[in-house]
Amino acid sequence: MSNSHRTLIAGGDVLVGDPLRADVRRADILVEDGTIVAIGNDLAGTDAEIVPAEGRWVLPGFVDTHRHLWQTTMRALTANWNLNDYFCSIRSTHAGLHGADDVYAGQYAGALDALSAGVTTTIDHSHCINSPDHADEAVRGVKDAGIRALWCYGFYASPMDEPVFTTPEQRLADARRIRDTHFSSNDGLVRMGVALNELGFLPFHQTRAEIELADELDVRVTAHTQCVWNTERVSDVALLQRAGLLRAGQVHSHCNTCTDEELAVLRDAGCSVSSTPDTELQMGCGIPIYRRAAALGLTAGVGVDIVSNNSGDFFTPMRILMQHERGHALQPVLEARGLKAVGGDLPVTTRQILHAATLAGARALGLESVCGSIEIGKSADLLLLRNDGLHMRPVIDPIDSIVLQAGTRDIDRVLVAGRTVVRDGRLPGDVERSGTRLIEEAHERLAERVAARGGWKQPVPDGLWDEMWPVMLANLAADRAEV
Questions:
Q1: Domain Amidohydrolase-related, which positions (predicted)?
Q2: How many CB atoms lie within 10 A of CB 385?
Q3: Which of 358, 413, 451 is nearest to 93 (CA)?
Q4: What are the φ and ψ backbone dihedral angles of 367, each rounded to 5 degrees?
Q5: What is the pLDDT of residues 299-329, one digit of tens each?
Q6: Residue in 27, 31, 35 with CA at minimum distance from that of residue 48
Q7: Largest CA distance in the chain
Q8: Nearest to 317 by CA among 270, 370, 267, 280
Q9: Domain limits of the chain?
């Protein structure tokens, strides 16, 4: 007698396979021990727990390719800030004031927030690792939440009065400890990666050491790449290529200053990119590169980025990115030749943006065989989205309606590896109460420390980049001697 657990998701309108194909059909999905084992119309007699899905689209859960979960402790703080404000306050001050318990709360509540918005998989660029305890609690928080994640150990040294890590080598050693302690295999719900320091923050040999550690640990790399504009341009991509440090599987976030040639270099190296339109458009990072990257055949995903600024709702960046890319592409045509010159398909379609938010994201994270689409053999990471409400009717094209009409209020159920984590549009009551309590307590602790430092918004020093840029250039110049 089998001890396996079976669930039948019955009677939904299922998006089967790659969202680019837009194959939406009425079907049942049979899930056994968290894996999709059958998709069809004749499964009703199966001995299984029944999940009714009539009046719902059944979609792959969203895959977020760039998020900082720990910043949930400061939700919407940076709503009217630019990148200079963010760097001086969040990265250079508030990060160093977070205790390990604050990081746990941010990770846990932030991951729950993602799940409640239909994000079943995220990359977590976890760059508030101020001590070994911070690292342990960051991992524990994301694991306790029950989300699928690529958790990336961040090597950034938050400025602190009494730092625990006093050398970069100590951080590398702690990352090894985390790998041995928490990630003994490469196939768990939460897997390990590393998040690089921004190029130039440390001498280039340290960037090399961070990437070589990822090679040693057999984990993936994510990085903030080319999102700072300056009159003296630096190409992170060229530096990494020349040093032999580009690797297949790396996820490069933002990339706003990249040329098409540099994006092609990333493509040829087997890298991926992540566009985070809310942050990039607001803070002075520049124009998102999603459309250019996708046109070049470079795997391009979508990210929420900083919850200290942006909602955890994944419909929002999908729409902002799609509509911005459309407008940005059409504006030169309108200015040069007027509306009469606008014709054919729009530059980015709803199918493309849903693909970016699901299967392309899974591909970027190395999880294409696990999630990102509904296929036999893949994990049942699923989003059930109601389509029977007044605001959703009529439905002419399901993909168009999902991308442009649906929202988080339409979420009925979310499953990760076949386990229901959101039911009737809500997290379990005790889970939501726990997450809310933890994040409120963390915020109160942090607010006291921030007040003692002069408040939430720290002044941006005059000539900040005039001082920083020469130091960064000197750090990067070392690569020429190395290679």
A1: 57-421
A2: 27
A3: 451
A4: -120, 20
A5: 999 999 999 999 999 999 999 999 999 999 9
A6: 31
A7: 73
A8: 280
A9: 6-60+370-423, 62-341
**Cα distance between residue 403 and residue 406, in whole Å:** 6
- Is residue 176 within 8 Å of 212, Cβ to Cβ? no
The Cα 234–Cα 240 span in angstroms is: 11
Pair 262, 238: CB distance under 8 Å: yes
Q: Which residues contact 201 (CB under 8 A, 6 or more apart)?
A: 156, 472, 475
Q: Can you state the percent helix, strand and coil of the chain, rounding each to 5?
A: 45, 20, 35
The CATH superfamily assigned to 62-341 is Metal-dependent hydrolases (3.20.20.140)
Mean pLDDT of the region 198-217: 95
pLDDT band at 478 (very low <50, low <70, confident <90, very high): low
CA triplet 75, 107, 227: central angle to 5 degrees? 65
Nearest to 73 by CA among 34, 39, 113: 113
Tens of pLDDT, residue by residue over 353-410, are: 999 999 999 999 999 999 999 999 999 999 999 999 999 999 999 999 999 999 999 9
In whole angstroms, give the CA distance from residue 62 to residue 456.
32
Residues 6+ apart with CB under 8 A from 478: 203, 204, 205
The string of DSSP codes covering 34-52 is TEEEEEESS-TTSSSEEEE
E runs forming strands in 296-423: 300-302, 305-306, 382-386, 411-416, 419-423
Instruction: State the DSSP H helix or E strand holding residue 208, giving kind and residue range, or none if neither.
Output: helix 204-217
Given this model, what pLDDT does residue 71 score?
Answer: 97
CB 150 within 8 A of CB 363: no
Q: Do 91 and 129 contact (CB within 8 A), yes or no?
A: no
Q: Do the strands 62-68 and 56-60 form a parallel or antiparallel pair, or are they unpaired?
A: unpaired
Contact 33, 347 (CB under 8 A): no
Question: What token pair was written down for 358?
Answer: 């699901």
Q: How far, CA to CA in Å, does 366 sit from each of 63, 306, 435?
A: 12, 22, 29
In whole angstroms, what is the distance from residue 113 CA to residue 313 CA?
Answer: 8
Average model confidence (pLDDT) across the chain: 95
Regarding the domain with residue range 6-60+370-423, which homologous superfamily does it belong to in the CATH classification? Urease, subunit C, domain 1 (2.30.40.10)
Q: How far apart are CA 278 and CA 316, in angstroms?
A: 8
Instruction: Give the residue among 352, 378, 289 at the shortest CA–CA distance from 34.
Output: 378
Confidence of residue 2 (pLDDT cuts 50, 70, 90): low
Residues 193/152, Cβ–Cβ less than 8 Å? yes
The pLDDT tens digits for 434-466 are: 999 999 999 999 999 999 999 999 999 998 888
- Tell me which residue of 154, 188, 67 sits closest to 117, measured CA to CA: 67
pLDDT of residue 315: 97
